[in-house]
Amino acid sequence: MKLTRENAIIHAKTSTDLSAYVGCIANFNNSNVVSLWDPDGDPPSCFIIHAEADSVSVVPLHGGLGGTIKVKLLAEVSAGHELYFAIQGGDQGFVDLIEESVAGDFFICALALEAGVAGEMVEAVLFRPEAVTIA
Predict the structure, then answer these.
(1) 3 has a pLDDT exceeding 80
(2) Residue 95: which domain range?
(3) Are residues 20 and 73 in the same domain?
(4) Which of 46, 48, 54, 125 is least surrounded, with the fewest CB atoms within 10 Å of its CB?
(5) Is the pLDDT of residue 71 over 70?
(6) Mean pLDDT along residues 48-61
(7) Which of 125, 117, 21, 20 is nearest to 73 (CA)?
(8) Same domain, residue pair 75 and 100
(9) Is the dihedral of CA 39, 118, 122, 96 positive or negative?
(10) Residue 3 domain-assigned?
């Protein structure tokens, strides 16, 4: 049997312009519209790889990607460290679990393959979100 595709990339509509959020996590709502992830809502379900004013291309966080992606950083990270997604002020991005320990509930869902600093996009591997509480 031939595979239908190598990567599970989903093209969807958005309720707002998400072009500034490439490299961030998001969620599908009941109407299959993608919106930014709300930390007070459901666990994140997808990762934004491309965005335009009214549409996005996403990959599911539950598997289906046959390679690496670039994640947006909020702070310095080291290669080989697990990353959690955070919202700081109006900024969203990934933070190094070992280097940055802000108290709260987060989802680890990436592993950095290279080091980087805040504002950069670095190569990472996505995996199923795992809830973690940092005290």
Answers:
(1) no
(2) 69-134
(3) no
(4) 54
(5) yes
(6) 90
(7) 117
(8) yes
(9) negative
(10) no
- Written as six digits, the tokens of 29 are 């709502």
Q: Please indicate, yes or no, whether residues 47 and 76 belong to a single structural domain of this protein.
A: no
- State the pLDDT confidence band at 67, using cuts at 50, 70 and 90: confident
Enumerate residues 6+ apart whose C-beta is below 8 A from 4: none
pTM for the whole thing? Answer: 0.82
Q: What percent of the chain has pLDDT over 70?
A: 96
42 Cβ contact partners less than 8 Å away, ≥ 6 residues apart: 27
Looking at the structure, tell me whether residues 32 and 85 fall in a common domain: no
Q: Based on the structure, what is the number of domains in the chain? A: 2
**Is residue 4 domain-resident?**
no
